[in-house]
Amino acid sequence: MTIRLRAHHLLCLLTYIGKGYTPAFVAQYDALVARLNAGEGAVLVEGPDDICAPMLEGGHHCLKPRITARDAQALADLARLLGHPLSAGEPVPLDGVALARMRRAFADGIIRQACARCQWSELCTGIAAAGFAEARLAGAESRQ
Q1: Sequence-distant (≥ 6) Cβ neighbours of residue 58 within 8 angstroms
Q2: Are 94 and 36 in contact (CB under 8 A)?
Q3: DSSP reduced 3-state for 21
Q4: In whole angstroms, what is the distance from residue 84 CA to residue 97 CA?
Q5: CA 92 from chain center: how many Å?
Q6: Which residue, 38, 36, 37, is CA-closest to 4?
Q7: CA-CA distance, 109 to 38, in Å (whole number)?
């Protein structure tokens, strides 16, 4: 199986430490990160992804235009950083080299435009400032 990820969740994965909107959301996120750490691949999608799944009932923000705009900004920033276009249906670059590059750029604010007005931004800034030490997603070189 392949994990489906929307573009701005690539940024969220960089700093994910086990906090989220609801217990169901955190449980789903933890399970997805464990699968990624075990070597499962991921693919870019437009709109709600596997991380959003627990939030889709009840009209959560996953479907709102501002979140789609956040995805577009993240996609543009990541494509520029990685040096090639990214689009839905493509594999997500989550190897150790790509993760290290994205985390450096995240910490330096280079790929944070999509994070503007996100309620988690301050938490993520702190995680980046601490060197991503508590982040749950490991680079491919750490995966067994």
Answers
A1: none
A2: yes
A3: coil
A4: 15
A5: 10
A6: 36
A7: 29
Contacts of residue 48, Cβ cutoff 8 Å, sequence gap at least 6:
6, 56, 62, 63
Give the closest residue to 89 by CA, choosing from 42, 43, 41. Answer: 43
Question: Are the C-beta atoms of residues 129 and 107 closer than 8 Å to each other?
Answer: yes
Say whether pLDDT at 142 is over 50. Answer: no
Question: Does the pLDDT value for residue 70 go beyond 60?
Answer: yes
Q: How far apart are CA 135 and CA 99, in angstroms?
A: 11
Q: What residues form DSSP beta bridges with 20?
A: none
pLDDT at residue 40, rounded to an integer: 93
Tell me the residue type at 89: G
Q: Where are the beta strands (DSSP E) in 50-98?
A: none
Closest CA relative to residue 28, chosen from 1, 55, 2: 55
The pLDDT assigned to 141 comes to: 39
Q: Half-sphere exposure of 7 toward its Cβ, with a 13 Å CA cutoff?
A: 25
The DSSP code for 20 is: -
